[in-house]
Amino acid sequence: MCWRPGVSNKHAGSLTLRVALGFAVLTVFLVASSGVYLYLALKQEMAQRDREELAGKITLFQKAIAFVPDVASLRREPGVLTHFLIGHESLALRVRDEAGRVVVASPASLPHTATQGLPPGLVSLAGSGVDGHAWKGLAAPAALANGERVRLEVWRATHQQLALLEWYRNHLVVAGFAATLVAAALGWLLVRRSLRPLFALTRSAQAIHRHTLSQRLDAGRVPRELQGLVDSFNGVLERLDRAFAQLTDYANDLAHEMRTPLGILLGQTQVALSRERTVAEYQRVLADNAEALEGLARTVNDLLFLAKLENAQNHLSFETLDLDAEAKRVCEFFEMLAEEKNIRLVITGTLRLEADRGALRRLFNNLISNAIRYSPPGGVVQVTMEPSLPGFVVENAPANPLPDDLSAMFDRFYSRGEKGEGHGLGLPIAAAIARLHGGELRAERRGGRLGLVARFGGASASPV
């Protein structure tokens, strides 16, 4: 059954009831099909046996009548044939001459039949007698000793067989009805028993709340058919747990990062208001506060940008770009900052790939500014296009010791400088942009230099 968003599912009904009814319908179909087959098979078998018995009697009468001198003798001594019917109450015999006159006849009320001529061979007969009983028979020609030919008719009363077939049919109906009820009941019990693991999973899932997101459903105690559901649900729990943990860390980092500048702002303001000061002193305090507020504004803006990046996949506008040209534009923007520290910016290689122009420039901006900020004076920041990734690498000689675990550089609010101008969000934003392009951003040690490798996945890349 397909579920459609916005469509009420309150009338979907019980799965147990539907499966039980399905069992019942299937049982009705199977029992009815089997009953009809068995009924028809029995009816055909009885008809076949009747025909074989009647054909045997016809053969017997043909052999017996061959010793009768003539029709008159047969009329006088019918026992020559009728004694073969002793003990066979359901059988009857009728013999006609070539003119259609009855020569020998059983006392039973047989159906009327056509009497024109003799049958060419075995001919099937059927009809109802005067008493309403149904009869079936066979007719065949026979020859007397003098060569006269007669018509033999051997009949069997079928009302008893019809009664037996009716009894058999009624019992099939009763048995089918009983089997349907039993199948429905057993189906209901079987489904209820089979759904116990699902009920247990439901109870386990209901016991999970925001304080126990680390709890997982036990996949080892469910049937194979539910393994996929359990694994998917555990995957959802894993992502929720990770998201809540990330949100908690995010809030803690934000509070920790803002506590210091807010404390400084509050302290400076309180000190400035503790006594009357000159205009120059107030201006100095306001200038310091404005600088701190600008840092807070940059932090908040970057945090908002980072949060938007998590759901920005559908808002990116991809186009084919020259990465070396975009890197050159960003380097021109930071040229004055690099000259202040006597740092040389070098771009090598060419590469074209599909990317979002704004996000790509933000990526270059964060990586190049980070490399300039944490490079020693007189160093070189090199941006190398590498089509084999596809992507690029930003290298610089680090001014400060690198952490043992380079992945820590991508944590929010991580800073490598004691009093750096950065607030520790540049690299996390750059990593998020790389992920939005189907790739990754990683840090590598390259012979005493730090390399930030930006790889773009799922994009068609080619050297220019």
UniProtKB/TrEMBL annotation:
Keywords: ATP-binding, Cell inner membrane, Cell membrane, Kinase, Membrane, Nucleotide-binding, Phosphoprotein, Transferase, Transmembrane, Transmembrane helix, Two-component regulatory system. CDD domains: HATPase (cd00075), HisKA (cd00082). It is found in: Cell inner membrane. GO terms for cellular component: plasma membrane. Pfam families: HAMP, HATPase_c, HisKA. The chain crosses the membrane at residues 20-42, 172-191. Residues 253-451 form the Histidine kinase domain. PROSITE patterns: HAMP (PS50885), HIS_KIN (PS50109). It catalyses: ATP + protein L-histidine = ADP + protein N-phospho-L-histidine. InterPro entries: CztS_silS_copS (IPR006290), HAMP_dom (IPR003660), HATPase_C_sf (IPR036890), HATPase_dom (IPR003594), His_kinase_dom (IPR005467), HisK_dim/P_dom (IPR003661), HisK_dim/P_sf (IPR036097), TCS_sensor_his_kinase (IPR050428). SUPFAM superfamilies: ATPase domain of HSP90 chaperone/DNA topoisomerase II/histidine kinase (SSF55874), Homodimeric domain of signal transducing histidine kinase (SSF47384). Its EC number is 2.7.13.3. GO terms for molecular function: ATP binding; phosphorelay sensor kinase activity. Residues 192-245 form the HAMP domain. Member of a two-component regulatory system. This is Sensor protein. It comes from Crenobacter luteus.
